[in-house]
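I hope you will forgive my troubling you with a question about protein structure. I should value your view on which stretches of the chain appear to form regular backbone elements. Here, with my thanks, is the record as I have it:
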Amino acid sequence: MCHKKKSKALAVVLGALLLCNVMPAGVSANGSEFKDVSPDHWGYKTISWAKESGIVDGYPDGTFKPEQSVGQTEFLAMLIRAYKPKGFSEQSSDGDWRTPYIKYGFKMGWAGSYITPPASKLSSFPKPEISEPRMYVAKLITNASGRSYGFDDSIRFLLDSGLSNGKTDNSVSGFQGNELLTRAEAVTFIKNVKSKLDMLYPAPEFITTYDPKTLTLSPLEAFPLNVEQPVIYGDYSHIILTTPSSGYNLIHDPSYTISGTVEKAVGEELNLTVEYWDNGEFISEKSLKTPITKGDFKTTIELPKQGIFRIVIYSKQEKATSNKALTKFYVEYKPK
């Protein structure tokens, strides 16, 4: 990730080399084994797996430093590298290797799992890396699982879903949330997550209380969008949906009808976008318009394939002035 350019000043080059010593990947260790991770080390197999998978690498001296605490962006980078999600690039626009990882984390709504959120300019991240307490790791993994809980509930979710066994026992206190996470523990977390979570998910906008019954539900089903549009002073438009009436809707036919009442709106039509959930990212499939007739609207969309779709509804005025949605919801098309 550290790229030397002949045109850069010597100080910049030295700064780039310093980052290589801090970050968990980017410079290969000498040989296939780390000098400080013997075959009898408790994390030997997992560390070897992480290295072979391109998730971590060693330091220039051939060590891994398994007991050294991991930084918050270092752990985030490990998680993202394990999945290689669509739309993610490690290329940095400001020379800081952390920038693309932080941007992706915020894009996915994982900001609540950071100890120190980035400043308005990504180049002003705190240096050096801030060590990551285990409770923040629990929250990040919970967010990446498409759920949003407080710290204790996040730990409980990890324990109940088998993503962790705790440090001293299988309890919130036994998880030892205030302790710092080591690099060896970090790759163990990553491997557990990779074995149980099929892809990375965006976190819901609001924190809720953990309910063990949701463990059997998909993340988007467990945390559906709220189709109720709040009345906010100053909005140009307001609609009430008749269909659907909930934020997650399972259907077995590709044709899906959306209808509702327009209480106020600027313009004679509403705009809809249909986005397809594709391995960790919503991809725009189509846009369409539905006319407002005597205060009502009704339109039928044809879903092009199986899977989960996010339907977003805008009015002409909100779309033009703020790109703010009136409401949005999920539709999962799964034939019987």
Residues 107 and 245 are 27 Å apart (CA to CA). The first strand starts at residue 238 and ends at 243.
